[in-house]
Amino acid sequence: MHLHALLSLLLLQVGLGAAHLHAKRAAETNATLSAYGTNSTNWPIAYGLDDGLLYITEDPNDSDFNLTPLLWNLASITGENWIANATFSNGTSAGCMYIMSEHDYAVGVLPLTRAAYVNGTVSGFALFASQLVFNNNTLLQAQFWAKSTSSSGVYGLTWTVDDSTPSGDFPVVVKATEDS
Length: 180
Ligand SMILES: *[C@@H]1O[C@H](CO)[C@@H](O)[C@H](O)[C@H]1NC(C)=O
Ligand SMILES: *[C@@H]1O[C@H](CO)[C@@H](O)[C@H](O)[C@H]1NC(C)=O
Ligand SMILES: *[C@@H]1O[C@H](CO)[C@@H](O)[C@H](O)[C@H]1NC(C)=O
Ligand SMILES: *[C@@H]1O[C@H](CO)[C@@H](O)[C@H](O)[C@H]1NC(C)=O
Ligand SMILES: *[C@@H]1O[C@H](CO)[C@@H](O)[C@H](O)[C@H]1NC(C)=O
Ligand SMILES: *[C@@H]1O[C@H](CO)[C@@H](O)[C@H](O)[C@H]1NC(C)=O
Ligand SMILES: *[C@@H]1O[C@H](CO)[C@@H](O)[C@H](O)[C@H]1NC(C)=O
Prior knowledge:
Residues 1-19 form the signal peptide. Keywords: Signal. This protein is globular. The protein has 180 residues and is mainly beta. Strands 1, 2, 3, 4, 5, 6, 7, 11, 12 and 13 form a 10-stranded antiparallel β-sheet that branches. It has a 3-stranded antiparallel β-sheet with strand order 8-9-10, covered by helices on one side. It is built from 2 helices and 13 strands. The termini are far apart. The protein binds 2-acetamido-2-deoxy-beta-D-glucopyranose (7 copies).
């Protein structure tokens, strides 16, 4: 299915011109991001303490895989600043969401100051209603995929640049929910 292509078309009509009209405050604060797909119904997105990449798994506290949950501050697509900021549950900042083009398009988190110096895409994530989308300067896109890892039930969150679909992987829709 070409869900992401369809979304790109639908979202384009919203008009990027509206993106600068409204207030700066985050649309959702301390939100949980979850992935919806074939093998992940509402599974939270967790942070890999070993590599700084994002993973989809039922238990974001999975200590075997060295994962920890994150809370997110996210703008709406009508907001000004499209930097998606993550915080650990102890309140320490983890950094911002980042597509690592030099790392097979894995989606990770990097401190803002470091992210500015590496080769990838640091900004551009915001919420369309509750769905996380990416602004590539031309289109709004939602091309998140769950990529299988060596551990069953743990998938790496990645971005796709074309329609190739390796076996064992599946597209996911990423949605935010505010906890409290
Ligand atoms: C993860 O563990 C922390 C600390 O033990 C706990 O407060 C939190 O509720 C857990 N989160 C989930 C989603 O299980
Ligand atoms: C994320 O953090 C940056 C740097 O502090 C800030 O400019 C931006 O507004 C934050 N994004 C959101 C959605 O709060
Ligand atoms: C908060 O949690 C993160 C991830 O577990 C850890 O790296 C960081 O050192 C912690 N910060 C504090 C102040 O304990
Ligand atoms: C978000 O969570 C942090 C850490 O738990 C807390 O310090 C902060 O007040 C919360 N912010 C909001 C707007 O609830
Ligand atoms: C940086 O990214 C561009 C576009 O993806 C790529 O062509 C280039 O090789 C990358 N450079 C490095 C040093 O990774
Ligand atoms: C945005 O995505 C479209 C469709 O994939 C592509 O044609 C365009 O070059 C991209 N623009 C940027 C700035 O990456
Ligand atoms: C989904 O999970 C089932 C059962 O664990 C597994 O057999 C199947 O290979 C998984 N499919 C994908 C696309 O990961």
